Amino acid sequence: MAQMIIESNKGCCVKEQIDPAKRTYNIILLIVAGLGGLLYGVDVGIIAGALPYLEATSGLTSGQLSIIVAAVLLGSVISTLFAGLLADLMGRKKLMIISGVMFIISIPIIALAHGYGPLVFGRLLQGISAGFIGVVVPLYLAECLSAANRGKGTGLFQWLLTFGICAAALIAIFFSIWLGNIEATGNVDKIFAAKDLAWRSIFWVSLPPGILFVIGAFFVAESPRWLHKKGNIEAVRTALLRSRSEEQAEAEIKVMNEVEDSEKQKTSTGEKIKESLLKKKYVIPFLLACVILACNQLTGINSIIGYNATILIQAGLSDVAAHWGYVIFTLVNFLMTIVAIMLVDRKGRKFLLSLGSAGIIVSLVCVGFLFKSTEKMRVDCGTVIQKMVTPEQKLGISYNAQIANNMLSQEGEPGKAILDKPTTMNVIYSYGDYRASTNVVRSTDLGAKISIDRDSCVPPNKVVAFFSNPFGNLDEARTAPLKIEHANITPIPSAEKGWLVAIFLYIFTAFFAVGPGVCVWLALSELMPTRIRSNGMSIALLINQAVSTAIAAVFLPTVGQYGYGTMFFTFAICTIVYFITATFFLPETKGKTLEQVEEYFSGDKNALKD
């Protein structure tokens, strides 16, 4: 694809043959940028395949696992705030190298971890790396690529981002098949050891792209625009000549000089307008940007990617089938992103965002009803489980078909309705003011076990306690008895229903890729007026990442208590807000200059008319 992009630039601006050295450098430039997108996709997607095995072997609670998933998003929130500032201070190239090194360091921290702390730290480091990459690589592309290649180059970053998610799924399916052969032996100890090795190996295999990205970043030039800001004109010329002819390089330097001279003249003559940021021309596009970015995450996209294999297992698919289902999910996302890149300049941002959000609503509602049809048969065996709590206020249950039937038989007609059926179980419990949910276990899984103790629920210190429950009494929780609030036993759906859920999730990701996946970033960059673009986008992106982090953190505890159906219905309701905003409030910016968009929000309703 990189070769195709370079070929498309023939004849642009200056009609001369691009020499092989410049052609090769342009391809390297795009490959390095593409590797950045690949790393970003791996950061987002790698946890989905590893999570079922981490869940089975780590002994961590669902709340802790949710934090491990959300740590990448939290790290991304932190680094997004400072990425632009650091890119201006140290340069785009150096920040790219640093972000790649951080990704490399995070892999052994995670893969060798034994315990909650190292896992969270490693994932947090991965997230910080992803946040830097997500800002600096597109910025670097925009400043280094010629005008003819800029859009295609940014498209390549997004395309390989989705490929990174797909690659993570393919890695996971390999280990799922390998594990399936070991499970056939029926040896519980071997199965446990294999699952532990599987999730660690999944992270190890993601290391080579990070190494290649760092090596590649050393071979590309610094951004000529950044060098020009630093006043190093000779370095600018050298950087441009690596990818452009001498005439093209001199023409770009001339434009940079003219822009700089214009800005200096405005500053010296006092022409900069000091008007209120509360004017309609700033407030309306800023609010639109914040709503769109928040709703982009409230579709549930990152959590559906991160928990995809777990969702499909709970929908009724086997471990291997669920991982194959996730591979198909990522392939649909990958292929439909190509379609979106082809359509965005033809159909427009507003049309594709409206179409995409409408399709998302329908697919989420269908998934919600499919889960609800099974979850309505759920039986709460909390009173039975409460009797099993030890004097030390702990609980340990080996969950299998016999134990499930014993508990269900004590719950009357609702329990008898699902006797002798394969089931799942999870427990919601509390110590004082602090609540937690166990992992979901299957009666058909060998060695399935639920373990509860105080350390799995009560925060270790007041800092963690504040974020868990700002109004909780930590001292009281350290001595409070274990209270079983709910012990939900739910029949496992059929494999046919599981594949039906998978199909609607494929429809979901197809519509997301065509609409919000690609269009949202274009629409937002075009909405923001020049004066507030950098700060406004930072705030809007912070809201985006914060919403994503919050959803990932509460996902497992929420579905443990209320079910997947409720979670998907909530996502659908939030997406209705997205659809209304895109359809009725978002202007079409296709083919319009940034100045025309700014005039539109200043009150000129004819500015965006053809």
What's the pLDDT, averaged over the residues? 79
Share in β-strands = 5-15%
Q: Assign the CATH architecture of the largest domain.
A: Up-down Bundle
| Residues in helices, as a percent range | over 70%
Radius of gyration: 26 Å
Structural classification: mainly alpha
Number of helix segments? 25
CATH overall fold name of the largest domain: Growth Hormone, Chain: A
Which descriptor suits the 3D outline?
A: globular
How is the main sheet built?
5 strands, antiparallel
Number of strands: 7
Low-confidence stretches: 2-16
Number of domains: 4
CATH class of the largest domain: Mainly Alpha
* The CATH superfamily title of the largest domain: MFS general substrate transporter like domains
Distance between the termini: 33 Å
Describe this structure as you would to a colleague.
It is a single chain. The chain is mainly alpha-helical. Helix content is 72%, strand content 6%. The protein has 4 domains: 19-220, Growth Hormone, Chain: A, CATH 1.20.1250.20; 226-264; 280-374 and 497-610, MFS general substrate transporter like domains (Growth Hormone, Chain: A), CATH 1.20.1250.20; 379-417 and 422-491, no CATH class. The chain is built from 25 helices and 7 strands. Strands 1, 3, 4, 5 and 7 form a 5-stranded antiparallel β-sheet that branches. A two-stranded antiparallel ribbon has the order 2-6. β3 (423-431) and β4 form a beta hairpin. α5 (116-144) runs antiparallel to α6 and α12 packs across α25 (594-601). The two termini are 33 Å apart. 49% of the residues are buried. The model is unreliable at 2-16 (pLDDT under 50).
